[in-house]
Amino acid sequence: MLRRTMAEFDIKAGLLHVLKRIDEVILLRSKEIQASRPLLVAVSKTKPAEAIIEAYQAGQRDFGENYVQELVEKSQHPDIVAQCPGIKWHFIGHLQNNKINKILSLPNLHMIQTVDSEKLATRLDAAWSKLKPASEPPLRVLVQINTSGEEAKSGIGTKKAPQLYQFITNNLKHLQLMGIMTIGAFGFDYSIGPNPDFVSLMQVHRSICEANSLSPESVLVSMGMSNDYDRAIEMGSTMVRVGSSIFGHRAVKA
């Protein structure tokens, strides 16, 4: 099954296609957008170790996982450990309190993108201080914001997000708050205008920067997935999470 999947999809070509598209959008982006070049996080949930290794060998370093157990298995997979020493894992799923110690103990954990409450942030801060020596850098995190208002989605509301941002910055020294993220509603029709989720997140971004005297470039914005990452970059995204456009890229038939 794995051989057929690897032959059917051309992961390197998919990765190069996404990187090329990112470069194209940056050139077309409004000069008013003060944003750095977006970081590409390859979403590898449900994908086998072979696919991750192939993407890594093609130059990709940042990978996102949605489920704790899957990240546990992949981060300790002997082939990935041996062949991907510089891999950076981003956790992009809902994190339950009882899974905190398990995920923070994993090798090459780079960032938790889904902090959405003072309670979760405080527990992450306390756990990191206990698990890691004082010389270890703080844990990188993003505040997840529910811009669509969908009850099924995690994330703090847009009005409360700046307050959570300040709480983490002022009180939790074992966390390095890097920015904000959203998932947003799926399947937006761009023929009717800009995505309101992206508009909303950029408004929160502006509020946070103004309230904390921060430059826009210093606060990461993680928004945009396979179906709309180019639109997100146009709006100011500095981190995109792309899965199917990389791992589901069809190999060109001879």
From TrEMBL:
Among PROSITE patterns, the record links this protein to: UPF0001
What InterPro entries does the entry give? Ala_racemase_N, PLP-binding_barrel, PyrdxlP_homeostasis
Task: Look up the record and name the cofactor or cofactors this protein needs.
Answer: pyridoxal 5'-phosphate
Q: Name the source's superkingdom.
A: Eukaryota
Alanine racemase N-terminal domain location is 39-250
Task: Report the sequence similarity comment from the record.
Answer: Belongs to the pyridoxal phosphate-binding protein YggS/PROSC family.
Instruction: State the function annotated in the UniProt record.
Output: Pyridoxal 5'-phosphate (PLP)-binding protein, which may be involved in intracellular homeostatic regulation of pyridoxal 5'-phosphate (PLP), the active form of vitamin B6.
Can you name this protein? Pyridoxal phosphate homeostasis protein
